[in-house]
Amino acid sequence: METTFLKVGTIVAVTAFYIPFLIVITKGLGAKSGRRHFYRSLKNVFERETDDLRAIDQISIIYRKISEGNTEFSKKYRTPIDICEDLLARVTGYTKWTFKFHYSLSFTAEEI
Question: Is residue 109 part of a domain?
Fold first, then answer.
């Protein structure tokens, strides 16, 4: 009888810890996948467009589309400027290897 209570208590304690933990981790992964999508799209815009005004319009469209489909991304980054500032901080703050490891792409010095 005591072992049954011990097992049930252990299951309840583990569940009470891991469910919130998994929710927090899942939210972080949602924002990261949005960042990865935005960074890749931004790199494609840089490679394709020479006109700055058209590039800015396309970046705004990309931001809006990603925000519509990813609520964690839109909560963390309220405007396209916020995500671009975050990109600049990450590209310059991480080593090239670390940034490439996390986001599977790299930017040249000219693109930064």
Answer: no
Is 108 among the domain residues?
Answer: no
Read off the tokens for 8: 């049930």
CB neighbourhood size of 34 (10 A)? 22
Q: Would residue 84 count as lying in a domain?
A: yes
Q: Please report whether residue 16 resides in a domain.
A: yes
Q: What is the pLDDT along the chain (112 residues), one digit of tens a residue?
A: 567 777 777 887 777 777 777 777 776 667 788 888 899 998 899 889 888 899 999 999 999 999 998 888 888 889 999 998 989 898 888 888 888 888 888 877 777 7
Q: What is the pTM of this model?
A: 0.71
